[in-house]
Amino acid sequence: MYSWDDDTSKWYGSAKYEYSPAAAPARIASAERAKAAGPRSYQGKSGPNERIIDPKKMVSTQSANPLIVAIDVTGSMSTWPAEIFDRLPLLFNTLAQYRPDTEICFAAIGDAGVDKWPLQVTSFASGYDLEQLLGSLYGEGGGGDAPESYGLFAHWVNTHVEIPNANEAPFLIVFGDINMHAKIPSVQVKHYLGKEENGSKDWLTGDIDSIKEWQKVTQKWNTWFLRRPGGKRGDKIDDQWAKAIGAQKIFHIEDEQRAVDYAMGLVARSWGYFDNFQENMRARQDEAKVVQVSKPIEMICPRCGAPIPVRADGMFKCSFCGTTLKL
Questions:
Q1: Which residues are CB-contacts of 118 (< 8 A; sequence separation ≥ 6)?
Q2: Which residues pair with 173 in a beta bridge?
Q3: Fold category of 21-326 in CATH
Q4: Which pick of 32, 120, 178, 283 has the fewest CB atoms within 10 Å?
Q5: For residue 157, how far is the Cα from the chain centroid?
Q6: How far apart are CA 278 and CA 265, in angstroms?
Q7: Rounded to an integer, what distance in angstroms lies between the CA atom of residue 142 and that of residue 312?
C-alpha cells in the first residue's frame, strides 16, 4: 500500500523517481498526519459513513483544478474503492506536484432501483483529508444485472457541484463497465437528492433523461468513461455512452490493475507532464507495462479525445479543440 511520504525507494520498478520539491511541505504535512493515525487500511464494513457521503449536500471548491473521480461499485466492481484507496497517496501526490491546488471529489455509483446507497459523494479535499473521505465510501456490490444509475450521478453534478474558479474544463473520470438507465424517475431524484436546508432544489415535474444530463455535464467538465476490460468495443454500452459524452471520450482499459495509472496519465498528458508521469510509472512497473498504458493515451487528445497523427512531434495543436500539447 502506498504511503503519503516522499519515500519511493520501495517502489517495485527499476527506475528511480523523486517528487517535485516544490510540493514537499504539503506531502510532509500529510505524512505526519498519516503517521499519527497509524497504518493505512481500508477496513471491511457494512455501510458508508452517511454523514460524509450524503448526496443531498451542495459541494463546492475554490480550486482552479478540481477533479471528480466516480466509481461504479455494483457487482464485482465493489472492490474498486479499496483499490483506489491503496493508490490514493500516489494519485494525489503525483497530480498535486503538477498543480498544487488540485482538489478531488470522490463518488460511488450504484442502482437506485435496488441499492440502499445508490449514490455516495464526498466533498472536495486535498492531501490526507482525502483518506477519510474515500474511506467513507462503501462498495455495496448490489445493483441489477444492468443498467445502473449513472444518470442520477450526472444530475447531481449538474445541480449540486460548484466550481467557480476552474480555469478550464476540469476532469471528471468515471470508472465503470455497464450502461445506464435511460430515465431517472423523479421520485428517486427527490428521495436521494431532494431539497435541503442549504437550498438545493430538485422538485421535478417529470423523469430525468440520463443522456441529456450527461451532455450537460460535458459542457462544463472534461468527461471520460474509463471502461473496465470486458465486453466488445462498439457494443450497446459503448453506443449509449457515445451518445452521452461522445464516442471519443470512451477509454477502454486494458489492465484494470493499472486503472489509476490510466486516469493519471490522461490528466498528466493534458497538463503537460506526461514525461514525468512515465518516469513515475517506470519506478513502479516494467517498461512493457509503461508502454501498454502510455500508447493509447498518446494516440488521443486528452481534452477532446480526437486522434493525434502518429507522426506528430514537438508542440502539437489539436485541430478539433485547439489544445496545445508537448509531444
A1: 109, 110, 111, 112, 149, 152, 188, 192
A2: 69, 224
A3: Rossmann fold (3.40.50)
A4: 32
A5: 13
A6: 8
A7: 45
